[in-house]
Amino acid sequence: MPTHNPNEPDKNEPEQVEPEPIDASKGFEQSDVRVSGILVFLTALTIFVAVTAVLAYGIGKVLNANMAKEDGPRTKWASPVDVRPLGNLPANPELQSKVAELTQRFPTPRLQTDDGNQDIADLHTREDLLLDHYSWVDRTQGKVRIPIERAMELLAQRGLPQAPAVVKAPLMTGDQEPTVAVPLTKGFARTGYELDQAAAQAAENKRPEPHK
Fold first, then answer.
1. Model's pTM, two decimal places?
2. Which residues of 61-70 are buried (b: 16+ CB within 10 A; e: fewer)?
3. For the chain, which residues make up each domain, given as ranges?
4. Which one of 3, 10, 15, 83 counts the least CB within 10 Å of its CB?
């Protein structure tokens, strides 16, 4: 037979504490803010900021030291350049002259500024000068480079030097005698940039001169 009395309060349940009555007759909070909590928060925040700043400065020093070690000693080509006086990047002659001055200080080979069109055109021009004109190879030994057209004429007149016969081994089963199609090449092909420059020069030459 149960001996529990339903009207008796349960000892396991927490006791309900009634809140203290608030005196609202004065119309404002009568208790003060806890200054100790604010001081603890500000102190912890200051310590955290200081530790973070010290760690960031130390990591930066370590990274800079490693990069300086990898880059090696400073030279006239590996020296920092102050670009702050350049300011923004407007398209003006003064900025272009400053950029050109900075790029001239950098050693070759430099990056191409026009996709290499002018460099290739200059290379072909130098090759044309060597192929179409007489020039010295070694003045002390009397060796002269002759134009390619003259070389072809002499070669047609004198013929190629006869090389000694080469004893060939018999071909294996399934092998074929290699054949070479001549001519192997007709020289280099002009680039589109060079063709445009040649067309512009031809049009300029055909333009009638103004009468004085």
1. 0.33
2. eeeeeeeeee
3. 36-72, 117-158
4. 3
